[in-house]
Amino acid sequence: MKKPLVLVLISLVSMLWPTQAQEGAPPVLAPFASPARLNLVAEANYLTELVRRRLDPDKQGLRMESLDGKMVFADHHGDAAFNPASVIKIATSFAALERFGPDYKFETTFLINGAVNAKTKTLKGDLILQATGDPLLTTATLNGLIRQIARLKISRVNGDLLIAGPFTFGSHYKTDRAASRLAPALRKLGVRITGKTRKAAAAPQGKVVATHTSPALLDIVFDQNAHSTNSTAERLGEVLGGPKAVEEFLVRRVGIAASDVRVGRTSGLDFNRITPRATVQLLRQFAFWLDRKNLRLEDVMPVAGIDPGTLRTRFRSEEFRGAVVGKTGTLPATEGGVSTLAGMVYTRNYGPVLFAIFNTKGSVNTYRQLQDELLMNFIMECGGMPGLNASLHRSDN
After folding, report:
1. What is the mean pLDDT of each run of 10 residues along the chain (397 residues)?
2. Domain coverage including residue 385
3. Which of 164, 366, 380, 388 could join 203 in a cystine, given CB atoms 3.0 to 4.6 angstroms apart?
4. How far separated are the first and last CA of the chain, in Å rounded?
């Protein structure tokens, strides 16, 4: 889903990127030591509206910074930790893309390492599954692979079922659970395993009998974030090593203080914590990493009012359509109601501005309205939406 270069933005990002960057180990960008603090009407009106609606200001977090970190446009409890809900999917996306690369495709392959007796339809040997953790592998796709095995006149395996690599499918988000359901799935479609189901550190040599390849990881991540698909994020997290691995990535790679983040679920469900300031730091690191790959945030998150998904119906009017790239978060039944929005907004006077808005204990619909009003007022106060905005960075929407 690669987009054409926009030279103005590329020039801006190039000026901001450290000149000593190493290709193999990109540096952590340190926060700007003394950013200028701008006091804008949009921030004041937002805080006033919270009070007017009797929403506890102490349950809300806000941080807005220029892409280079030299200006702070808004800060309200920026160093307090809030529940980010699905905004944590940004971290999961970044960790996965850095680990595997944007073009990486997950492969799920069945192999056999013995001879097949066509008369008795028996494999004398092991059936092997070599998995790489495809987060989109459905039960239907897995069944299709099993049917390919059955068509090879294999109805009985006189050996073991070996599973190598991370493996999830359907609603089975953990490798152990998915592995325990594989033999029953095979049996249901006519392939019976006489031996045990065992994990293998690496797949033994064998003949490939069925294989499936996923879309590119960049496309997987974009779709996950556009539609806020929890199953994809949970299964990507499993491949990465679980929530703790993503949390360690934020501390080690992004440079977020350990006290400023806690990842409990890689989808954002249940209990997670991160500060608005740390979220902006995450967005900045992600934006610069993407730039090194000739990509940008709108390649991994939806453009409001344009792309399908959770932001499709927001910021749709002509003066704002294409101005906001972001990730939503919604937990209506958690902590009294959680609604979040984080990403980047394009402005005429100040260029791209990173933002994180965390709202807790209130109606998610009310909070969405307030988030939209804040960003729209901010855009207008900063000279409106520029001619070069997120909508022009796309070639397929």
Report:
1. 39 40 49 83 98 97 97 98 99 99 98 95 97 98 97 96 96 93 97 96 90 99 98 97 98 98 97 98 98 97 97 96 97 97 98 98 98 98 84 48
2. 10-18+30-102+218-393
3. 164
4. 10
